[in-house]
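User: Continuing from earlier, I have the next pair ready.

Assistant: Great, send them over.

User: Here they are, in order.

Assistant: Folding the first of the pair now:
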Amino acid sequence: METVEMVSAIFGFVGVLLGSLTTSVLTIYKDRLVARHETMIRDQQYERDRQATKDDFQRESIQALQSAVSDVIRAAYEELDRVLAELRESGSWPARQWETPTAKGWSEAVLQLQLMAARVLDEGVRELAYEIQRVAGEAIWAADLSTAKQHSRRLEPLHVRFNDTANRIFASLF
């Protein structure tokens, strides 16, 4: 009888060992699976946060570029208004020379446009901003009234195109 009890005890002990081993293996497997899942979720959250930060930066940069473009256009229109007033007084177009003082607000507006354009990732928006800067510059440096009108008339459609392009990008960033 002692042998039967001993065999039963050994089998019981082996059963407990196998049960403990199985539980340990399954617990380790479950912990590794949970850790892998948590790592994946953390990585996904990191990517979402990173993309959100990038999108925020682009939204802010495009808004700042829109302001800079508006400042360039404003400076050009103010200079054209000044030149038109001078034309009315003198009867002749005062073509700009190198010695002519810089249009009020022009340098600051151009520098701000260039700074903000460098932060914008979308090449199309940047190119439109630079095109607006170029056309505005050509308008205020025009040799005569006709040329100034020609360049000035291009500013508004370019500005509309610029803002439409910016709005399409904004929609993709939300």
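And the other member of the pair:
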Amino acid sequence: MGDYLYKKEVEYVPFQSRVWAKASLLVYLMGIQFIILLVIALALNLPFVLIALPVVAIGLGANYIIFWRRMRYFLQGIQISQNKTVHLDLYLKDENQRIQLPLHYFQIKFQRTGGKGRYILLRFYNQQQLLGFQYDFKVWNHDSLAEVFTAIKAIKEEELTKQEKRMLKKGFFG
């Protein structure tokens, strides 16, 4: 590690690529639903089926916005130097924030969100102020997010709570 107590870096993924990677399947499926409803309405001369088209479009838009909000932050790297300074290469959309703060101000939280804890999330704080977050995405899977969380807790000499230990367990029912 050399000059760092901890260092983890990943390849940067542009904002639109992150959003599209998460939302593409949903866009395709809802697009197919839209086309099927349109064909049924026109082929069978059922104009009341056209009422469902805006519902599908609204559902598609709402889900795309959810993925857009989740993917707006991207952690490219985190380093903790020997002098206990945290360096975050945290992107907000495509803009690198390059955050530096003393380790004793830095807080990190590991969370499971969504049904049955399907989504893993790391939140980064400067004392109580949210700096950003990283959802599980490609390289940032459960194992790598858990590794960052436990390494930082160890460097800060903070014990894991029972709830944190339970959340770190990998599995569908966590």
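Worth noting for the second one:
The chain has a mean pLDDT of 90. The CA atoms of residues 114 and 120 lie 9 Å apart.
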